[in-house]
Amino acid sequence: MNDVDIAVVGLGLIGGAALRALTRRGADVVGFDPLPVGSTRGSSHGSCRVFRRFNFESPAYTTLSDQAFAGWTALEVESGRRLLLPSPVLEAGPRASAMVAASRAAAAAAGPAGGPRTGAEANAAFPALRLPDDWDVTVQSSGGVLLAEAALRALRDGGRIIAEAARIEPATDGVRVRSASEDVRARQVIVAAGPWIGGLVPDLTPLLSITRQTVGWFAPARPDLVELGRLPIFLLEGPHGLVYGFPDFEGRGVKVARHDHGPMAVADAWDPPASDAELAPVRATLEALVPAAAGPIIERDVCLYTNTIAADLRRDAGEEFVFDRLRSDRRIIVASACSGHGAKFAPAIGDILARLALEPAYEADPAFRLDRFSAFGGVGAS
Asked: What distance in Å separates the CA atoms of residue 17 and residue 352, rounded to the nearest whole number?
């Protein structure tokens, strides 16, 4: 049996960022993950995620975004890889859209925003769009395409990694982390296992919701209008739900999906492939609002969102992060990144997790702690 200071179980973008942050701080750390970079499973698989500086989910995320941007920039320099492709992010919805209003409020602290404010202005600026003229629009220039697979490689570079699934077993002399070929005793363990986290830390299971999300790549009807630099990243709050998409930055089509939660799923429910029926709301949205992108479906994918339910003590609406030590065993640190908006923050979250592991007095932001749930005792709740 090998002794280590810290083990990280799950090396997606969040766990990979924790591994990197701990390694840079000189910690004796090892990571476990059976999924190689390029796998078609896991919360961080695939080529891209959206980077937004201003987030309609919470204005408090702006600081986290800025910390993450600094981390991605530093990682680009250190790794020699391009990780962020600058792109404006357009958010739009019917007049008085709550999403647009929240994004504008989050951006207000940075000063007056420029760019289109109505559907008519957005259509003039971005000819691929056909939004209703009276829609509310906000455009942030400080967004980008996060190259997720490249980022995952960069975060794992130089880390000590065991490419196997692991289970954890708390013991009096440490936390045992066992895989097919390894038996490690760690002083602390960070669990960042995406949809599998409930299987490793059963106490979390009642707090989590796993849903099936389908993604399609559409061959553009007008390729010249949807390439990077002409079509922004978009989030459209239309009649078929909240739909997001990317410009065709890879030459493989326009990636589009619904952000609204799909049907409930379990951790290994990656099949069957996305169906035409599941992608019908996305296609209808493109045909109505982004007709230049509305060609045939050429690729399909399935993602699993893992999110928290609404908290009942320090109240939130759910879909919020958990970065905390377990109250029943403070040697175990849990990280549920809340799929759908966590990837962009990975370097900042990695630093939070490293501090939880290395600084006994450090506590994460109260909004991210387990004591907001009565199931965890409500310690310090307000």
From this structure: 10
State pLDDT tens for residues 176-233.
999 999 999 999 999 999 999 999 999 999 999 999 999 999 999 999 999 999 999 9
63 contacts: CB under 8 Å, gap ≥ 6: none
Bridge partners of 322, per DSSP, are 336
Please give the model's pTM, rounded to 2 decimal places.
0.95
Average pLDDT over residues 135-142: 96
Task: Name the residue among 78, 71, 145, 88 with its Cα closest to residue 345.
Answer: 71
Q: 45 and 147 in contact (C-beta within 8 Å)?
A: no
Burial class (CB in 10 A: 0-12, 13-18, 19+), 56: buried
DSSP SS3 for 211: strand
> Is residue 267 a contact partner of residue 210, using CB atoms and an 8 Å limit?
yes
13-24 and 148-156 are packed helices; what angle lies between their axes, rounded to 10 degrees?
30
Give one DSSP letter per residue of 333-365, joined into a string.
EEEE--TTTSGGGHHHHHHHHHHHHH-TT----
Of the candidates 131, 111, 113, 112, the residue with the CA atom closest to the CA atom of residue 122: 131
In single-letter form, the type of residue at position 171 comes to A
Residue 170 contacts residue 331 (beta carbons within 8 Å): yes
Domains and CATH numbers, the chain: 2-45+149-205+310-376 (3.50.50.60), 87-141+209-308 (3.30.9.10)
Distance, CA of 36 to CA of 200 (rounded, Å): 20
Q: Token pair for residue 278?
A: 């599941």
Rounded-to-integer distance, Cα 185 and Cα 173, Å: 8
